Amino acid sequence: MRKNASEELDENSTCSILEHMGEGKQTGVERVICEIGIILRKRKANRNTFFVFDEDGAINIFTMIHVIERLQLTDNGLVIKGTKQEVHLQQGAMDGACAVYSMMMCLIIIRSIHRNDVVTLEDEKIKGNTSKGRLIKTFLYHNGFVRGGYYLSDLRDELLHSYKQNVHVDYYSIEDGYDFIANIINALDNNDPVELAFQRKGKSGHAVVAIGYEKNSNGVLLYILDPGYPIPFGQYWNNLIQINTNSTCKYNALNFIEKEKIQVDEALVIKKKSKKHCR
Predict the structure, then answer these.
(1) 167 CB neighbour count, 10 Å cutoff
(2) Going by DSSP bridges, is the β-strand pair 203-216/63-68 parallel, antiparallel, or unpaired?
């Protein structure tokens, strides 16, 4: 199916496209204009499904991108759905705290903390005898600069030590084999952000947040919030990581923004505990 590039892609034509795909008449369809062209989004099964068109508006191949439903684009940029809280946090030029920034983005996304808790620090209001106070003191005061970075296994231990009453944390390693990628996809399907750590050849590692994915012939393409770079206004993500699950090479993934081969080797899935489980 192909649509003339000069014909406007409005909601009616979008619905007919979805109908052609066997989806039937749909509601809640919106357009998002970004660098790669036109993206049509519809909500389905607790996630955002995007249909991507090429730059001239031609509909040749549908690419289905699944993005967690907790996020929303508004006039304020990328925010937590139903709020005005911006999601993306950008680390400083001198620190190695990408793992902490990524963890805090995950906590903001699952609505365990408010953005203002970590960007508007008022010492007199931080109570060290509360879970949130221990969290902030542990990561923003005692270990705030983190020049050497974190392994996610160590980050998990410190997070649970300071904040275990509020969150449940699943840790996955590349040593899990095939299950490693499957666990990442499963978490995203369950509407949970995933903190990822990866290694670079001859460089220090880095940590980011996966908020969506697309399966392709090479494996899986992950849609990333990267604390190392700003996020363009009107975008859901600011980086991509393609993991080639068919490759036997150690560095079997591509970090798009830096155009380099990497190895994604750790993942954290942080879930907010229900109140009945909190003490």
Answers:
(1) 20
(2) antiparallel
CB atoms closer than 10 angstroms to residue 77: 16
Cα distances (Å, whole numbers) of residue 157 to 117, 127, 278: 21, 21, 18
φ, ψ (nearest 5 deg) of residue 35: -65, -30
At 202-255, the pLDDT tens digits run 888 999 999 999 998 889 999 999 999 999 998 999 999 999 999 999 999 999
Residue 230 to residue 83: CA distance in whole angstroms: 21
Which is nearest to 103 in space by CA: 165, 142, 151?
A: 151
Q: What is the rounded end-to-end Cα distance, in angstroms, of the chain?
A: 56
Highest mean pLDDT among 53-62, 71-80, 185-194: 185-194
Q: At what angle do helices 152-163 and 98-109 cross, to 10 degrees?
A: 50
Question: Which amino acid does the sequence have at 32?
Answer: V
The CA distance from 227 to 206, in Å, is 9
Q: Is the dihedral of CA 254, 257, 259, 260 positive or negative?
A: negative
Report residue 18: phi and psi, to 5°.
Answer: -65, -35
Q: How far apart are CA 100 and CA 159, in angstroms?
A: 10
Q: In the 8-state DSSP scheme, what is residue 176?
A: G
CB of 65 closer than 8 Å to CB of 212: yes
Report, as an integer, the average pLDDT of 138-158: 77
Choose among 53, 71, 58: nearest CA to 212.
71
Q: Between residues 31 and 181, which one has the greater pLDDT?
A: 181
